[in-house]
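If your schedule permits, I should be very grateful for your opinion on a structural question. I have a record of one protein: its chain in single-letter code and its fold written as discrete structure tokens. Kindly check, if you would, that the fold set down in the tokens agrees with what the sequence suggests. I remain grateful for any guidance, and I place the record below:

***
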Amino acid sequence: MEKTRRAVPGWLRAACFLAAVLLLSTGCREPKIIRVADQQAVKPADLVKEALEADFIFIGEAHSMRLHHKAQLQVIKALKDQGADVSIGMEMFKTESQDALDKWVRGEMSEEDFRAVYRTNWNIPWNLYKDIFLYSREEGIPLVALNIPKKIVNQVLKEGFESLAPEDLEKLPPGIECKVDETYENFMREALDSHGKHGVDFKNFCEAQLVWDNAMAHNAIEYMERNPGMKMVVMAGGGHSWKRGIPAQVGRLSGYSSVVLLPDSETLAVDRVGPEDADYIITGRF
């Protein structure tokens, strides 16, 4: 045994040690979920028990943060373990890709082909979402495309909601207007500045954001109405998942209830989030 150990080259032992360090610093780190109401840490299984009566569980993300996707998968697995009939609604795919999502879940599409569909919809590295996609396929969990063609949002951003063509309006629910509270307005103004869109009319920017939120809420509700009794985990950016975002539009357009998990961020830091923003916070930023 001792001879075998001495036979291992030093460079190989060093490489193995470095790999272990990297694994511990990334993949092995666990997300921590804080309940907003009392600032207590909860496990995904306990969260699911508390949220089991809700129709939607929104899990916001900073798209490039691995920890957030790990939390999403843990909650999805906990729902499955509790016997929930669960689906996954995704900002990452436009509705015209729904057929590809269905084929993937049914095992009728190769990973290579599905990755090609993913790349046409989303520009965040595949590996960040891979475990969720593989789990959905293994367990037959439906993936639901929630997003709309980018040209619709861009058209509203340029010329306002009234400029949309009739065929685009058919993809949207009624009653969309730039009518938000002061907190959400300030959030959007900061977002407008941070994206460097100087000169863009704020009303158009506001309408574009609400078109986006309303469209995804509308698509999620339509799926739930076609599949009564299901629960949907919605994966979307933190701004969309905020209670003032898609969840507010779900409430406006339906009688469905929602629970919201938001990622800790500079704009929605854990020590500044209240129950009007989210029910739980995913801490950590990597």
